[in-house]
UniProtKB/TrEMBL annotation:
Coiled-coil portions: none
Record-linked InterPro entries: E3A/B/C-like, HECT_dom, Hect_E3_ubiquitin_ligase
Alphabetized SUPFAM superfamilies for the sequence: Hect, E3 ligase catalytic domain
Naturally occurring in which organism (per UniProt): Dimargaris cristalligena
Name of the featured protein: HECT-type E3 ubiquitin transferase
Pfam families given in the database record: HECT (PF00632)
Lineage: Eukaryota, Fungi, Fungi incertae sedis, Zoopagomycota, Kickxellomycotina
Residue stretches making up the HECT domain: 380-703
Length: 703
């Protein structure tokens, strides 16, 4: 059948057009037109035969009564070895089972009905069955794989109910799908994989919810292998396009945008990512990244995604994009916006003869950092997307990054000062949260949001210890008991004990009512969670509601007045399409950076720029690096705080540092993260001075 949007096929108003209808292929999701009254059609894009009605219901019913089980397979193997079952008969058993949807769909049952929590498949038996078959000669394996290919080319039915997709669960267990050893084998398994991914991706939303639940219950190693399988498919296909592009066969900058296979694979990866969030033990987000995606033209991909072209773009599925690549996109987007603001300022100067600054320039007094910053940022909301430059009043110095970093550090020190009461610190978790009883105005919280946004926008790491719940809320994602456990572990444990308590005497044992305890400057207050909550006891029947209301109160309701202006300030600076590429966990890394334990000092050496020193011949440089590497972790972190204001490293790793060492006495402030050194006579003198600097200073360039 022709694609529905084909310009030469069945033009509107023609007799052929009146006798046709439109549907979507069950494998590649392409929109196709076919004659009315047809019982099936072959997709011209992926070559899948789509049956519009269940094919031969009587035959299907017969197949359901001939399922394959592990016991049946073992008995057949035993009969085959003893000569009771010929080679042809055993191949016929494999071929019939793996080429008929209904028969395979009812094979390997676990005796339970198919539900959203249980596919009804004995997965351990399926794995054992595959192992038995793969131990046979290659002829039998080929018989099985050819049968699977026939099955996927024509499923012979529509897939509307969860009971009908057990086949896909069984086929996903096939270990050959991840086997890419020889070219012919790779091509063959790749063809089967693309059809399996296509069918999975085109299921309805309700079936996708079921798949997510089923995926979330897989053993950790098996779940990780599913993620690797999808990434392997994407890598293989991208490598093929790179090879064709290098040979000049393909000239498009984005040859993948019209390839349905990428969309199918990306959709399935999204299902796996959703399942990962439901797992008790999840795999890290970087396990979903595909490093080959870094080699595509991501700026062009990002632009196509923003234009809503309707074609596939990797930015639609940011789970696949590495943090380094996302940072490049975000910095490109920030640079474009900054350049736009500079051009706008210059045009205003020329056309309107009105003086405007191309930068967001702040001049603050050290003793009034908070007040001056709040007043100037509030007055210049329209300039927040300009490049930030900071000057301290009555101090000489040109800001090339160091003064901005110090301004962030001093401002946050004021904002998080316990005397202001804007945030509370949980002693057990060491994390800050918004103080629901704060007397500060919404402007102060707006400023905190602006500061976090400016830090991301200006590629600055901040030592801000908010829980993941904060970044989830910025992302409009829901929060729950797991988030409360990170912020207030003791409270979360108590709520978990309440949920897990087996007895019926909850009222007597726990003695709770529908109220939440709130600390208001040292005094406990009971806040009703529902109308008349003070007089509503928590029972076995309503404890779930109580826990949900308590979590919502702590993380949402009680801090609405504080969080809303914070969110508004954050999104005013860096809200937009580029930020939406990041998951909440990645936004946290953008703000805080990675742990200092991950710093690679050899890499830092390789990206360091020297001014006034010859690193090959000046002994002070070798002594400096030897001294750093000899220090323990605590002193190394102190050093990072001294030169960067934080003991964390950029999320994309040490190479993202633009570290510079300047010989003092030759004049100017250098670029970001400058370190000024005198040419000390001995290593001992160097250590003495450097230790004094990092232990006694409170900012940059303190001698």
């Amino acid at each position: 059948m022709a694609p529905a949007d084909h310009p030469d096929e069945f033009p509107p108003g023609s007799p052929e057009h009146a006798d046709t209808t439109v549907t979507f292929c069950m494998c590649c999701d392409c929109k196709l037109r076919y004659p009315m009254g047809s019982t099936c059609f072959r997709c011209t894009v992926c070559d899948t035969v789509n049956d519009l009605h269940d094919r031969d219901p009587a035959a299907a019913e017969k197949q359901r009564h001939q399922p394959l089980t592990l016991a049946v397979l073992r008995q057949a193997l035993e009969d085959h070895r003893r000569g009771k079952l010929s080679q042809g008969q055993f191949k016929h058993l494999l071929g019939e089972t793996f080429s008929h949807w209904d028969r395979l769909n009812h094979s390997f049952g676990n005796g339970r009905p198919t539900t959203s929590e249980d596919p009804g498949v004995a997965l351990a038996e399926v794995r054992d069955a595959y192992r038995l078959i793969l131990d046979l000669s290659p002829d039998y394996v080929r018989t099985m794989m050819r049968a699977i290919e026939r099955l996927l080319r024509r499923p012979s039915r529509t897939l509307r109910h969860k009971e009908e997709v057990r086949v896909l669960v069984i086929l996903l267990e096939n270990p050959l799908l991840v086997q890419y050893t020889f070219p012919r084998e790779t091509a063959y398994h790749h063809q089967i994989t693309k059809r399996l991914l296509g069918l999975l991706s085109c299921l309805s939303n309700s079936l996708h919810h079921d798949l997510v639940r089923w995926f979330s219950q897989l053993p950790l190693a098996l779940f990780r292998s599913r993620v690797e399988w999808v990434n392997q498919f994407i890598t293989h296909r991208l490598t093929k396009y790179r090879r064709l592009t290098a040979a000049g066969t393909i000239r498009s900058a984005m040859p993948y945008e019209s390839d349905w296979c990428f969309k199918a694979a990306a959709r399935v990866m999204s299902l796996l990512f959703a399942a990962n969030k439901l797992r008790q033990v999840s795999i890290p987000i970087p396990d979903f990244y595909n490093s080959m995606v870094d080699f595509v033209d991501l700026p062009a991909d990002y632009d196509a995604w923003q234009q809503r072209s309707g074609q596939f773009a990797f930015c639609q599925y940011p789970t696949l994009i590495t943090m380094g690549a996302k940072l490049q996109i975000m910095r490109l987007d920030a640079r474009r916006q900054m350049d736009s603001k500079i051009k706008e300022a210059l045009m205003t100067n020329i056309l309107r003869n009105r003086q405007t600054e191309p930068f967001l320039s702040l001049q603050v007094r050290r003793q009034c950092v908070l007040e001056d910053s709040l007043n100037q940022l509030a007055a210049r909301e329209t300039d927040l997307k300009k490049k930030l430059h900071v000057k301290f009043a009555d101090e000489a110095g040109v800001d090339a990054g160091g003064l901005t970093k110090e301004w962030f550090m001093l401002l946050l020190r004021d904002l998080f000062n316990p005397m202001h009461g804007m945030f509370t610190l949980d002693e057990e978790s060491g994390l800050f949260w918004f103080n629901p009883a704060s007397l500060e105005t919404s402007d102060q919280y707006f400023l905190v949001g602006v500061v976090l946004g400016l830090a991301i926008y200006n590629s600055t790491i901040l030592d801000v210890r908010f829980p993941l719940a904060c970044y989830k809320k910025l992302h409009n994602a829901s929060v729950g008991l797991r988030d409360l456990r990170e912020l207030r572990p003791s409270l979360a444990r108590g709520l978990r004990q309440l949920l897990d308590y087996p007895g019926d005497d909850i009222e007597e044992v726990f003695g709770l009512t529908f109220t939440a305890d709130q600390d208001i400057y040292g005094r406990r207050h009971a806040v009703p969670l529902i109308p008349d909550g003070v007089n509503t006891p928590v029972t076995r029947a309503n404890r779930g509601r109580y826990v949900r209301r308590y979590i919502d109160f702590v993380l949402n309701e009680s801090v609405t007045r504080q969080f809303d202006p914070f969110r508004r300030g954050f999104h005013l600076v860096c809200g937009g399409n580029a930020l939406s590429l990041f998951h909440p966990e990645e936004i946290e890394l953008l703000v805080r950076g990675s742990s200092a334990e991950s710093i690679d000092w050899d890499q830092l050496k390789s990206v360091t720029v020297y001014h006034g020193f010859d690193p090959e011949h000046d002994p002070i440089i070798a002594q400096f690096w030897a001294l750093l590497e000899s220090w323990d972790g605590q002193r190394q972190r102190q050093f990072l705080v001294f030169v960067t204001g934080s003991d964390r490293v950029p999320v994309a790793g040490t190479p993202m540092f633009t570290f510079q060492i300047t010989c003092l006495g030759n004049g100017a402030d250098s670029d970001r993260f400058p370190l000024g050194l005198y040419n000390y006579a001995t290593p001992a003198k160097l250590e003495e001075k450097l230790l004094r600097a990092i232990q006694e200073s409170g900012g940059f360039w303190l001698k």
